[in-house]
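B., you asked whether I could sanity-check this one before it goes into the benchmark set. Here's the sequence:
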Amino acid sequence: MPGILNLMKATLPLCHGVGAVSAIAASFATSAVVVAGSEFRSAFAKILASFSHGCSFDYGALGHLFQVCADHRLYFKGRLLHGRLILLSVVPGNFLGSKIMSFYSKCGRIDEARKVFDRIPCKNVFSFNAMLIAYSIHDQHFKSVNLFADFVNSNPDLAIDAYSISAVLKCLSSLSSSSRISHLLGQGVHGFVLRRGIYADLFVSNGLVTLYAKLGYLDLARKVFDRMVDRDIVSWNAMISAYDQGGRYEECIKLFQQLEGPAGGDLRPDCVTAVSVIHACSQVKDLSYGARVHRSLAIHGVEIDTQLRNSLLGLYARCGRLEFAGKLFEEMIEKDEVTYGTMINGYMSYGFVDKGMNIFHQISNPLLTNWNAVISGLVQNNRHVEVLQIFRELQSSGLRPNSVTLSSILPTISSLSNLLAGRQIHGYSIKKHCDQNVYVMSGLIDMYAKAGFVACSCRIFRHSSSRSVILWTAIISAYAAQGDADKALSLFQEMLSERTLPDAVTFTTVLSACAHAGAVSRARRIFDSMMDEYGIEPSMEQYACMAGVLSRAGMLDEALRLTQKMPHEPNAKVWGALLSGASIHRKVGPGEYAFERLLEIEPENIGNYIVMANLYTQAGNVEGAEGVREKMRKMGLGRKIPGCSWVEMADGLHPFVAQDMSNAKSKELSVMLDGLTELMRERYYITGQELQDEDIYEVSKKR
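And here's what the prediction gave me:
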């Protein structure tokens, strides 16, 4: 600081304008001292006073002076300097104008920067780039893109350089809310690059890869990547990260392998590369390759930061190596919300709820993401009562639930049939503008449908701003669960007519609806169209649905043939559907075959024993039924879990358990039920138990 002031004092008496400004600006530019104090203000005032009409200026020195004001955020002094130039009718050219624009931009006055740009008489690419960068820094990406378009159209001969293209591509990548617009503009810029011959520039190519990747056009991004003459690690990271974020994990891993091979040359993976490929390994649960990448980090000299440690933690936790994940967690010195959330999700995913809760309670001030992880894990493990307790604690903490919280808790509301709570959450989502979130809407559709208010589900669906495949699947499932298969299939056709492509979950829902409606031929067409028209290979879920369709229709032989054509060994859902169909049509042979397979897969599922015993009873095979019950007793499954239901009233939920008389109004309820039973008998309805008793009686008479 004293050196700057001494130089200012020395130069002012001897120089007139040019020399003084040049010397002082140079001194400022080479000083690392923060400029402040009364002496500095006095010297700066003398510089301004030395300006006069007719004197010549060293614009380079003035530019350096504005740069100093920008670097030290000396807004008022830079403003005074600019004002003096205006007073003296000095019109900044491209160099000085760019420095003044940079000064205003760094001081947060982007509109002033634009005014300076507009007043430059003959603009060149230097000032143009300065304005583009100013807009980009202040996240005014639309203005940056508009400036680029207007300037290129009005100045066709302007030598736009790679720096300009890189800046506008970065802005286009940030316009995620208008991906269609960004895509069209990006293609326009891409065409401009090809026409001007700038496509070989490394930064331009990297910008194009990043743009197409962020917009989800991964194949276009890969074409640009493959045609690059030179690639740096940024190029590889952009493409590898694109595959990872786009859910194409296998391709992410393959491209990483290419980077480590001859195609990568002398390049070596860095921390960004490792984060992406390890996350991809965790998603496909490729623990072997993920561990190999982990071991190679030391060989490549990759410094492991918190983000990379979180990725490694996610790999081992997601792949079930919870002991090793716990060890990594304990060794981590710096832990953030992602660290805790990853560990909570890992424990919860494998049913270790208490360990997950212990991790949660270690957090001194849990963030909303941590609360969401706990709520999601408890829902996943059907701990619905604890979900409500945690949700109340979340509200008491002062944090406000977001769309993730609401979509996570709605399955609990559906499970408990708590319509009042569901309506409160619906109202909260509207108030907080979360009601158009696709996951919140699908949760609300499911909640209202399970509460018996499918009309409300339909209303939510019809008022959605954009109908994704998730919402279509939710509303189709709502009607299918209500038994309205015709409406569910009608909605499926409406979905196809609006050119929304179904996914695997949609097909599962629609095939289930076909099973309830007995629409065998239609189910066949839909099942066959999965691969032929949509390129979706049927999974075990769809095969189980198709087996259910055939079994319910009494076509048990065809259902058995279907199990032989499956690419994988049929699971319990397939055999369960076959057993259920055999029970409906009293076909003992297919039922026995399916039951034997189920005993191998899930020997402790009491439902299978009950269905088979009832099938034997209905067919008159009392010994067979008794044999199944004896197997149940040997497996320790003889004790039947009493049925439970509940009714929501003004004073809360009232649970009812079979043969439990503890409710205050049990006697009144018994009288009401007896009356309803008599009304049903008058209409020739009988209970399943009475039917079974009658069958057993007839069999006994024959003997």
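One thing to flag: The two ends are 116 Å apart (CA to CA). Otherwise nothing jumped out at me.
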